[in-house]
Design brief:
The protein is α/β, with parallel strands linked by helices. It has one domain: Rossmann fold. It is built from 8 helices and 7 strands; from the N terminus they run βαβαβαβαβαβαααβ. Strands 3-2-1-4-5-6-7 form a 7-stranded parallel β-sheet, sandwiched between helices. The mean pLDDT is 93.
Amino acid sequence: MSEARRGVCVVIGAGEGLGGAIARAFAREGLAVCVTRRPRHTEALEALAQRIRAEGGEAHAFGLDARNEADVAAFIATVEQSFGPIEVLVFNIGANVRFSVLETTTQVYSKVWEMACLAGFLTSREAARVMAPRGRGAILFTGATASVRGGAGFSAFAGAKHGLRALAQSLARELGPKGVHVAHVVIDGAIDGEFIRGLMPDAAEKLKREEILVPDEIARNYVWLYRQKRSAWTFEMDLRPWAETW
């Protein structure tokens, strides 16, 4: 147990890109950070935690399938008991896939919805159960272009992300009066990282021209949302590069 019992930031879906940047940003704010990914990614997750600790922060890594109700409840309880009160929970699971609707199976559609929407419900509900009685806290959801616009080939992803946005709206209206800030961040554009650099041959040039989203810059906005005074809370924020068409 942390001697100071400082506040905790939980990041659900802390990969090498945006999730990791968000975790590092909150660690720099002085919060203890608990990061999760599916159990098969525990080695990469522990590397992230070690990097945060090397930078002077407190970090703990957990393999977690956020679609499992019992596991999510046990995880939130463990964090509260072992590291301190959860002050902010960031739900950052992506689950972006692209298939023609003619080729989208029930299994694919269901799995994407479970990862990007059901898991958001489970983790935010458990966080709300400890935040609401204290009258404080923040729950931040990572959205996407598909949260507000269903594109061709993205029926599964758009369905899940639309559902997550609706969940966030409902939570904001219910939990706001209880002192819990709920916000939804629409990420509209490519985010710099190995995946995008593999897809875009000119990614490096676009990055120089600031035409690709930078994880650290996105993360600053999550911290800003968390630090907002309740007299002026933002529910939805959209972030995109200056050159992105929308």
